[in-house]
């Protein structure tokens, strides 16, 4: 037993990974009974029995061996965590066994969702430019990470997003009308017009409403996953974030809580190269985000985020094991933010046009999937033309409807602060209305629901 | 974060004037040009979409910026908006203090509000640099830099995002000197953060969190009303031997243009400024709201014949009790206004102190016109903010009390 563990440990050391051998054993045990989601109070069964007779370290904080040579561990023991992909840039399957073998309908749905998202982005980006909405953030270049991961989940898995995951919501069936309603903050907005554009949320689609502060969702996702685990409901949680957000203190808390409390959770990092203007080499010095997983005792993988099948496979397997084994998984999807950070940003101030062009023209998740579809004879110029026309029409019609709609009733400013209206707030609301009645001409009441 | 800044408010943009050379073109020669063209074409293809959108009137600012007279005592001046005057203060500091460093998210390329434009190139990337995206890290690092002997100027991208650093500010920065018996301090730390409403910033790009920090002895909290004050007060914060938080009204970054002295100068902290003398009613505000109150004072004079004394508090902590109380003793009425929610806002503190100090002088209840006790809402902002009509109405009620 000790020998075997030593061997495992040597192997881990070789790869610079600090897995706990015991975690492996727990995993194996759990995977034999995948349906039974054992609920452990963490810790007790992990601790090795104390035995002072063995000449090995007894420190409670680490299970390792003594060495007698001074040697620092290098930050990158290997040349970098490899990037898993299924398709090459031309959409060719590299290893047939990795082909997820999705049906034509499924793949066409992937493509249509990715391109519909792209079309919606273009329209809403432009409408912000024209002053029709106050703000927008596009998803250009990251469509593969959204659709690939969303497709690998169960519909009742709970999503905690950051703010650039509209595709996940779209894949789950969030209608264009509701996207538009949110961005226009009109009376149909599920969020009641309170948040800036792109802060979507849907109770029906298990998509927790977006909040602007970064990385706050990570520890929350761990908590949610813990609650789902206790319910034994065969649900997982997925938590999206960027490589910039991963620098926040909350990211550390989220990773550590999820690992120690054994939460069925997928941390999905969209590493798109930039946090507004800050490039990754000013964001971190280790091997990306995936390299942090082992430090937290977490299963981790890096995938090509522009390969929708690679994202799908990795998320699917992580999801299966997260639920079966009650442990978090970390997926780092390498991708590129082709658009500006937001409509308030001009990225030409900090990156070159050539760089952006490369990703837009040479390595785009949409074109890669299209190559795949074309190669299978599933998609041609005619289909493309017809779909483009149809998708633009869908988006424009929704856009028009949203624009015509009134804003929510101003009373909604005061509700949901607490579940119940309190007397103080009630008084403030009444005082506001008394004031507005008296100074009507100075308030844009005609734009709001009566 | 969903940053909102450039071109966020066309009316503000229009008043840029000399600022334009600081300012990157909005349409970049990126691939997005083709995306933009696509969108335009599409909007044109659907002529029915040319109707007037039912969007909020976000372009109509709720205030008119009142520039200060050109200062004469600090030498030559230049036309600057608020972000440029901040840059100018930082530039002066970097040039005179070799230990000074400036850091935060995205500051290297000039900052999302352009406050650090050109400074990295001028002073080197070891003095003006990006940090990883972590507010608690930025402030903790700043405290450490100050303890280590540097002049640390930390930028938090939005005041709304300062809360991860709350522990570092409240438990560390504010108590460093006291807990060590003055063996150590981080007085050389200044934290800058864009603050206040901007027309469409909603929950997380609009907050005015000064009251949270006003409850924290050991730090100073400052809010300027325009470019001239911004530079003088920021330089005072940097020079001050206590950790300071400097909140910059982001709606004024471009909207506020004044003739600002190019040389360094100090405007004293903890000193309120009487902007307009009056005899009937004292109004106290800070930041953007000062301009709302100036307009209210003019309306009160014109429509009610009421003479208002307008005070810009400038420093929230420790605040200038004397100036405010002296004024209230004279006028007998006090109106305080801020954007932050009324309950527990800093107006409450002022009100309480003035009531204690000037009880017998009061002719009407001290009145607060502030944000409602809700998060800062998006589409309801025109109803939420303590605009001039609400303040004017309060003046009327106070006079008729």
Automatic annotation (TrEMBL), chain A:
Residues 112-410 form the Dehydrogenase E1 component domain. CDD domains: TPP_E1_PDC_ADC_BCADC. GO terms for biological process: branched-chain amino acid catabolic process. Its cofactor is thiamine diphosphate. The keyword RNA-binding does not apply. InterPro entries: Alpha-ketoacid_DH_E1_comp, DH_E1, THDP-binding. GO terms for molecular function: branched-chain 2-oxo acid dehydrogenase activity; metal ion binding. It catalyses: N(6)-[(R)-lipoyl]-L-lysyl-[protein] + 3-methyl-2-oxobutanoate + H(+) = N(6)-[(R)-S(8)-2-methylpropanoyldihydrolipoyl]-L-lysyl-[protein] + CO2. It comes from the Eukaryota. Its EC number is 1.2.4.4. GO terms for cellular component: mitochondrial matrix. Pfam families: E1_dh (PF00676). SUPFAM superfamilies: Thiamin diphosphate-binding fold (THDP-binding). Keywords: Metal-binding, Mitochondrion, Oxidoreductase, Potassium, Thiamine pyrophosphate, Transit peptide. It is found in: Mitochondrion matrix. Heterotetramer of 2 alpha/BCKDHA and 2 beta chains/BCKDHB that forms the branched-chain alpha-keto acid decarboxylase (E1) component of the BCKD complex. The branched-chain alpha-ketoacid dehydrogenase is a large complex composed of three major building blocks E1, E2 and E3. It is organized around E2, a 24-meric cubic core composed of DBT, to which are associated 6 to 12 copies of E1, and approximately 6 copies of the dehydrogenase E3, a DLD dimer. Interacts with PPM1K. The branched-chain alpha-keto dehydrogenase complex catalyzes the overall conversion of alpha-keto acids to acyl-CoA and CO(2). It contains multiple copies of three enzymatic components: branched-chain alpha-keto acid decarboxylase (E1), lipoamide acyltransferase (E2) and lipoamide dehydrogenase (E3). Belongs to the BCKDHA family. This is 2-oxoisovalerate dehydrogenase subunit alpha. It comes from Electrophorus electricus.
TrEMBL record, chain B:
Its EC number is 1.2.4.4. The keyword Ligase does not apply. Residues 80-255 form the Transketolase-like pyrimidine-binding domain. InterPro entries: THDP-binding (IPR029061), Transketo_C/PFOR_II (IPR009014), Transketolase-like_Pyr-bd (IPR005475), Transketolase_C (IPR033248). One of its GO terms (molecular function) is branched-chain 2-oxo acid dehydrogenase activity. SUPFAM superfamilies: Thiamin diphosphate-binding fold (THDP-binding) (SSF52518), TK C-terminal domain-like (SSF52922). It is an enzyme of class 1 (oxidoreductase). The keyword Transit peptide applies. It comes from the Eukaryota. GO terms for biological process: branched-chain amino acid catabolic process; response to nutrient. CDD domains: TPP_PYR_E1-PDHc-beta_like. It is found in: Mitochondrion matrix. Keywords: Mitochondrion, Oxidoreductase, Transit peptide. GO terms for cellular component: mitochondrial matrix. Its main location: mitochondrion. Heterotetramer of 2 alpha/BCKDHA and 2 beta chains/BCKDHB that forms the branched-chain alpha-keto acid decarboxylase (E1) component of the BCKD complex. The branched-chain alpha-ketoacid dehydrogenase is a large complex composed of three major building blocks E1, E2 and E3. It is organized around E2, a 24-meric cubic core composed of DBT, to which are associated 6 to 12 copies of E1, and approximately 6 copies of the dehydrogenase E3, a DLD dimer. This is 2-oxoisovalerate dehydrogenase subunit beta, mitochondrial. It comes from Electrophorus electricus (Electric eel).
């Amino acid at each position: 037993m000790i020998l075997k563990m030593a061997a495992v440990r040597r192997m881990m050391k070789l790869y610079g990974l600090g897995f706990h051998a015991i975690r492996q054993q727990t995993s194996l045990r759990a995977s034999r009974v995948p349906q039974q989601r054992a609920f452990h109070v963490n810790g007790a069964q992990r601790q090795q029995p104390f035995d002072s007779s063995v000449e090995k370290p007894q420190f409670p904080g680490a299970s390792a061996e003594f060495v007698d040579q001074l040697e620092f561990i290098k930050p990158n023991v290997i040349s970098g965590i490899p990037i898993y992909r299924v398709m090459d840039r031309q959409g060719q399957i590299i290893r047939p066994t990795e082909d997820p073998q999705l049906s034509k309908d499924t793949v066409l749905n992937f493509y249509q969702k990715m391109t519909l998202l792209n079309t919606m982005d273009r329209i809403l980006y432009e409408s912000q430019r024209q002053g029709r909405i106050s703000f927008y953030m596009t998803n250009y270049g990251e469509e593969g990470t959204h659709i690939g991961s969303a497709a690998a989940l169960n519909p009742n898995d709970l999503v905690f997003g950051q703010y650039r995951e509209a595709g996940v919501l779209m894949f789950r069936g969030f209608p264009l009308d509701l996207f538009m309603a949110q961005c226009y903050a009109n009376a149909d907005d599920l969020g009641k017009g309170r948040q800036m554009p792109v802060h979507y949320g849907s109770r029906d689609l298990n998509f927790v409403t977006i909040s602007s502060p970064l990385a706050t969702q990570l520890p929350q996702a761990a908590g949610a996953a813990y609650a789902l685990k206790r319910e034994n409901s065969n649900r997982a949680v997925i938590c999206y974030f960027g490589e910039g957000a991963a620098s926040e203190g909350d990211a550390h808390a989220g990773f550590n809580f999820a690992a120690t409390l054994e939460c069925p959770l997928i941390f999905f990092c969209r590493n798109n190269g930039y946090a507004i203007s800050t490039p990754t080499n000013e964001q971190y010095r280790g091997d990306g985000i995936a390299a942090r997983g082992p430090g937290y005792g977490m299963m981790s993988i890096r995938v090509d985020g522009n390969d929708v099948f690679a994202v799908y496979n990795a998320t699917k397997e992580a999801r299966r094991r997260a639920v079966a084994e009650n442990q978090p998984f970390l997926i780092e999807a390498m991708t590129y933010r082709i658009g500006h950070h937001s409509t308030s940003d001009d990225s030409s101030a900090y990156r070159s046009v050539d760089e952006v062009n490369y990703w837009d023209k040479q390595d785009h998740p949409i074109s890669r999937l299209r190559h795949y579809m074309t190669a299978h004879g599933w998609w041609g110029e005619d289909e493309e033309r017809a779909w483009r026309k149809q998708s633009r029409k869908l988006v424009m019609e929704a856009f028009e409807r949203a624009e015509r709609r009134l804003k929510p009733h101003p009373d909604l400013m005061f509700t949901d602060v607490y579940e119940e209206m309190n007397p103080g707030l009630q008084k403030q609301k009444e005082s506001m209305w008394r004031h507005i009645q008296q100074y009507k001409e100075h308030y844009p009441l005609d734009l709001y629901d009566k | 974060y969903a940053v909102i800044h450039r071109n966020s408010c066309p009316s503000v943009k229009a008043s840029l004037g000399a600022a334009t050379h600081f300012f990157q073109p909005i349409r970049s020669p990126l691939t997005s040009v083709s995306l933009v063209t696509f969108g335009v074409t599409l909007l044109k293809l659907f002529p029915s979409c040319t109707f007037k959108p039912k969007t909020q009137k976000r372009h109509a600012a709720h205030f008119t910026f009142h520039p200060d007279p050109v200062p004469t005592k600090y030498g030559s001046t230049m036309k600057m908006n608020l972000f440029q005057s901040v840059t100018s203060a930082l530039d002066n500091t970097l040039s005179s203090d070799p230990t000074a460093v400036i850091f935060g998210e995205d500051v290297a390329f000039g900052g999302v509000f352009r406050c650090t434009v050109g400074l990295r190139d001028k002073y080197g990337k070891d003095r003006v640099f990006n940090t990883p995206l972590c507010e608690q890290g930025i402030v903790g690092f700043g405290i450490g830099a100050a303890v280590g002997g540097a002049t640390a100027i930390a930028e938090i991208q939005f005041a709304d995002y300062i809360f991860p650093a709350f522990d570092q500010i409240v438990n560390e920065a504010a108590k460093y000197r006291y807990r060590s018996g003055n063996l150590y301090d981080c007085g050389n730390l200044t934290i800058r953060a864009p603050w206040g409403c901007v027309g469409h910033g909603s929950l997380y790009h609009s907050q005015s969190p000064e009251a949270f920090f006003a409850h924290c002895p050991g730090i100073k909290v400052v809010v300027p009303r325009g470019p001239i004050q911004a530079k003088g007060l920021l330089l005072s914060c940097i020079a001050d031997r206590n950790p300071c938080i400097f909140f910059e009204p982001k709606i004024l970054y471009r909207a506020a243009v004044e003739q600002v002295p190019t040389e360094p100068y100090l405007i004293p902290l903890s000193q309120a400024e009487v902007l307009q003398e009056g005899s009937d009613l004292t109004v106290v505000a800070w930041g953007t709201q000062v301009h709302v109150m100036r307009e209210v004072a003019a309306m009160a004079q014109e429509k009610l014949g009421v003479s208002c004394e307008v005070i810009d508090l400038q420093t929230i902590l420790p605040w200038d009790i004397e100036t405010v109380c002296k004024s209230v003793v004279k006028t007998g009425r006090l109106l305080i206004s801020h954007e932050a929610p009324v309950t527990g806002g800093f107006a409450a503190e002022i009100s309480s102190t003035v009531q204690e100090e000037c009880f017998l002088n009061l002719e009407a209840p001290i009145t607060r016109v502030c944000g409602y006790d809700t998060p800062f809402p998006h589409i309801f902002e025109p109803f939420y903010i303590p605009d001039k009509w609400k303040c004017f109405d309060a003046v009327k009620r106070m006079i008729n009390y």
